[in-house]
Specification:
mainly alpha, 10 helices, globular, single chain
Length: 221
Amino acid sequence: MPYKEIKKSQIYEAVKRLIDIFFSIVLLVLFSPIIILTAILIKLDSPGPVLADTPERVGRNGKLFKMYKFRSMVQNAHEILRENPKFSKLYTNYKKGSYKLRHDPRITRIGHFIRKHSIDEIPQIINILRGEMSLVGPRAYYPDELRDQQKKYPGTKDAVKVVLSVKPGLTGYLEVSGRSEINFDKRIEMDASYVKKRSIIYDFWIILKTPWAMISGKGAL
């Protein structure tokens, strides 16, 4: 997918990468008890793997990558939604709702809790260490989501190009704003706004607001 780079200094890029590595290691240590407990609860709650088997996401410069998440849905949830005729109406609502579902029957019991408090996102620390994601950045979108939503909202094409010029983030302005329920056109504009304004100070402001966003679950689906 095409992208439009909003250049920052090499010093910014280097410092941001060092921050990513440092915080990723610290978070892995701090969250290790939660990681172990969550993995056990997922296995006890429903059959299937601990990590979600989801389609690839679009990363920096339009490159696809596998994003790691704790499984919060039934096994093969994405295939079920897209291919099972029983879920055709739900899939239509999913696309109409900017790829968000308020009441999703595929979510497991433990899945509701870990999604509300963003615990399902913790494995993305691995993506950060691999250099595929950053601690702070825009949302990681699905390829079909970007294609379909740009058809629905043609005025978002420039914003999408800007967003795809940087690594997606574990957290971001959208997440700490508590406005994850807004439609795609507003979400992508907020993500593009972050890319244009991004700085080390701005990133730290978002990092400091993230713990409360996780605890409160405000805006989570």
